[in-house]
């Protein structure tokens, strides 16, 4: 199954090949935790490790990994991004598949790494956002999770319009025991984070965040879920400032939660 | 850029400053939010009706790319055909040349008034102001353009609906104040407003001897010019006056009528969400006894060939001015069109203006950053302009071009230095974790220092965790020695 690559005319490596490799014994799966999760949200990385182990797959963490270079690249500091791209390719070269709990970073790697450093294209093509890895590679939607709370899901822009993960996260969430999944109005509109956009255009960014936060509150959900902690940091920070008690929780943490080990 | 290029609005602040004011204008946000949400939903419906939209979009893109790769050929062919049909073709390097040509042509008729069909190219060149300087009055006949023109010091804020920032009670006030023949007791009922402008404009159409128009498409093969519109004012201007002067950006040329068929489907559905626009006018040179006796076509470069030289940025020249990207843009909906400091607002303006004008001014250097890169604009673009790609490309040009934002430059340098080495990143994380109880209470930070205040003015930030993921991994062998994992 070749999945069409939406933004660059490239084609993504066949998920079927990777699925076969993962089903075999000698496949090496690594987690790319991302610099934001590594530094600020270690719980998300731990959740990915716990989840994949529960599904029978060990995960490696190459300690040489740092950052995909997206912040530098998207802000115009291309020369600073290039060494990070090279570092990424070197760190993950030994692995057959790389799983990351960030749709945005996965998009940066797959879309831009090969164009910035052609030698990085092999590694880049083996990078999967978590929901892609679970649904396309492992072929599961019921991951045995339990999360008895009212949850609304915000599809982040890069998961929606760069990676085109479609309804994969929702298919995973619908199988979670006890979850009360409620639709988020205006879900596909940007929350206003946009990386350094949040700092360079704070007025517009905050206005977008406030509108998104209002939509989240209107659902009555106690948990806001997304596939990217940077967007959750933005909406969550807006909600927290407004005194709302909505809890931002990464998709990985909901999927890792069980009755015995709740999130 | 030279003095002759598209003028930057005088004293225009950078985008973030202009946007901040607009965000605070509740009425503007309400007007824009309502209008863009309505047209966004209608467009989605109009596009969903066609099962071959993706193929049409690809055709539109390919036709435009083919023209751009052979622009000289098609422009010379167009010039030959227009000339054969009795028209006169003028070449204008920049805005100043185009305005000078039009001014000279109007003067030659001896007239002091012209009627205008809505035209982005003449907005770009500032033609109305140039004509006014020469003592010639230009009357906009598109309803929204008329509202803007009558509004004291107002400017267009949308490509398709230049007065989108106005609601109907504001429009009534504008008419009452500035339209001399506005009826007594005019209310804000849409039908009354339309009737008032119809009567006002009808007098202009019947008396005008010279018209100035833009061009949506120019068919090189036959030398035919095409204008799409909704109100019929275009048809009036293109047929009633004795002299017609049309100004078009050089990228508007297409090879044949078969190519036009693609755009006649793409443009109305993308811009007004209609299957077909009410009026499509086409004309080829002059026809004795029918329509204008004198026809002039002004071919405008004004930065377009410079844009064409940029392999990434040139895709902006595919634009057919539909406005779909404005209507889906969450930044445009909150900042409004005026913040973009150009007749081209929204995502397309953010990539077009800095290329046409260069990134010399504050507003032009800030435009590539006027986006959260959410990608909604690319999704709806009928000619598949990858606007986020061009934005990021122009950001790199802005960074490489000069000494703006020294603090940001230093921060990016420091972050790059730390991120290039896992050991340095780990050290930074340990420092952050050690400070967690100082900087944050209850797991959140309410005030950040320096430029990060831009974040914490409206949003809490998470306090750093007790240990980073990598520290946890090293301490517990990836959780294997941790009991609760």
TrEMBL record, chain B:
SUPFAM superfamilies: 4Fe-4S ferredoxins, NagB/RpiA/CoA transferase-like. InterPro entries: 4Fe4S_Fe-S-bd (IPR017896), 4Fe4S_Fe_S_CS (IPR017900), FTHF_cligase-like_sf (IPR024185), Helical_ferredxn (IPR009051), LUD_dom (IPR003741), LutB/LldF (IPR004452), LutB_C (IPR024569), NagB/RpiA_transferase-like (IPR037171). Residues 310-339 form the 4Fe-4S ferredoxin-type domain. Residues 455-485 are annotated as: Disordered. The keyword Iron-sulfur applies. Keywords: 4Fe-4S, Electron transport, Iron, Iron-sulfur, Metal-binding, Repeat, Transport. This is Lactate utilization protein B. It comes from Actinomadura yumaensis. The lineage of its organism: Bacteria, Bacillati, Actinomycetota, Actinomycetes, Streptosporangiales.
């Amino acid at each position: 199954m070749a999945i069409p690559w939406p933004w660059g005319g490239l084609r993504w490596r066949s998920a079927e090949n990777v699925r076969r490799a993962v089903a075999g014994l000698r496949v090496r799966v690594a987690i790319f935790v991302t610099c934001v999760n590594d530094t600020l949200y270690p719980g998300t990385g731990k959740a990915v490790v716990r989840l994949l182990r529960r599904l029978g797959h060990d995960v490696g963490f190459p300690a040489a990994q740092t950052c995909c270079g997206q912040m530098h690249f998207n802000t115009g500091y291309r020369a600073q991004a290039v060494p990070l791209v090279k570092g990424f390719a070197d760190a993950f070269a030994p692995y057959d598949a790389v799983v990351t709990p960030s749709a945005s970073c996965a998009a940066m790697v797959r879309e831009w790494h090969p164009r910035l450093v052609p030698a990085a294209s092999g590694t880049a093509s083996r990078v999967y956002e978590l929901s892609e890895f679970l649904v396309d590679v492992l072929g599961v939607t019921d991951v045995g999770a339990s999360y008895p709370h009212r949850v609304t899901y915000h599809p982040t822009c890069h998961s929606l319009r760069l990676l085109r993960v479609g309804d994969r996260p929702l298919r995973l969430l619908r199988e979670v025991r006890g979850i009360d999944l409620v639709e988020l109005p205006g879900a596909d509109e940007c929350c206003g984070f946009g990386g350094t956009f949040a700092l360079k255009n704070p007025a517009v960014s905050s206005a977008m965040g406030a509108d998104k936060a209002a939509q989240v509150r209107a659902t009555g959900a106690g948990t806001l879920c997304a596939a990217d902690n940077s967007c959750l940091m933005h909406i969550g920070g807006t909600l927290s400032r407004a005194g709302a008690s909505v809890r931002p929780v990464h998709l990985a943490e909901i999927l890792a939660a069980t009755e015995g080990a709740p999130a | 850029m030279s003095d002759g290029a598209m003028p930057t609005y005088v004293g225009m602040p950078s985008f973030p400053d202009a946007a901040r004011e607009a965000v605070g204008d509740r009425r503007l946000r309400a007007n824009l939010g309502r209008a863009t949400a309505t047209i966004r939903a209608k467009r989605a419906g109009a596009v969903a009706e066609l099962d071959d939209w993706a193929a049409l979009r690809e055709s539109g893109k390919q036709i435009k790319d083919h023209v751009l790769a052979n622009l000289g050929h098609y422009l010379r062919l167009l010039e030959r055909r227009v000339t054969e049909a009795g028209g006169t073709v003028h070449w204008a390097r920049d805005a100043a040349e185009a305005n000078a040509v039009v001014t000279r042509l109007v003067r030659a008729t001896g007239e002091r008034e012209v009627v205008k069909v809505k035209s982005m190219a003449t907005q770009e060149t500032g033609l109305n102001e140039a004509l006014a300087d020469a003592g010639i009055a230009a009357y906009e006949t598109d309803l929204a353009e008329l509202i803007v023109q009558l509004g004291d010091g107002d400017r267009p804020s949308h490509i398709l609906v230049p007065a989108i920032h106005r609601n109907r009670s504001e429009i009534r006030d504008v008419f009452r104040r500035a339209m001399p023949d506005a009826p007594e007791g005019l209310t804000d009922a849409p039908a009354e407003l339309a009737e008032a402008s119809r009567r006002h404009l009808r007098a202009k159409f019947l008396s005008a001897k010279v018209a100035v128009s833009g061009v949506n498409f120019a068919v090189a093969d036959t030398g035919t010019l095409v204008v799409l519109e909704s109100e019929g004012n275009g048809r009036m201007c293109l047929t009633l006056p004795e002299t017609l002067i049309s100004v078009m950006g050089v990228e508007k040329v297409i090879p044949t009528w078969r190519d036009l068929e693609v755009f006649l489907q793409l443009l109305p559905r993308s811009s007004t969400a209609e299957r077909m626009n009410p009026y499509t006018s086409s004309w080829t040179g002059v026809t004795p006894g029918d329509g204008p006796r004198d026809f002039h076509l002004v071919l405008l470069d004004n930065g377009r060939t410079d844009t064409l030289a940029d392999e990434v940025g040139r895709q902006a020249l595919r634009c057919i001015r539909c406005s779909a990207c404005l209507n889906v843009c969450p930044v445009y909906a909150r900042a409004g069109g005026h913040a973009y400091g150009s007749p081209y607002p929204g995502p397309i303006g953010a990539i077009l203006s800095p290329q046409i004008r260069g990134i010399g001014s504050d507003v032009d250097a800030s435009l590539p950053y006027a986006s959260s890169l959410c990608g909604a604009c690319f999704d709806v673009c009928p000619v598949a302009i990858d606007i986020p790609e061009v934005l990021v490309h122009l950001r790199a040009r802005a960074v490489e071009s000069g000494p703006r934002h020294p603090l940001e430059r230093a921060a990016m340098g420091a972050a790059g230095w730390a991120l290039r080495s896992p050991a340095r990143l780990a050290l930074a994380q340990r420092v952050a974790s050690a400070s967690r109880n100082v900087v944050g209470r209850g797991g959140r930070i309410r005030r950040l220092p320096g430029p990060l205040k831009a974040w914490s003015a409206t949003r809490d930030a998470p306090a750093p965790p007790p240990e980073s993921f990598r520290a946890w991994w090293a301490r517990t062998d990836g959780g294997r020695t941790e009991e609760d994992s």
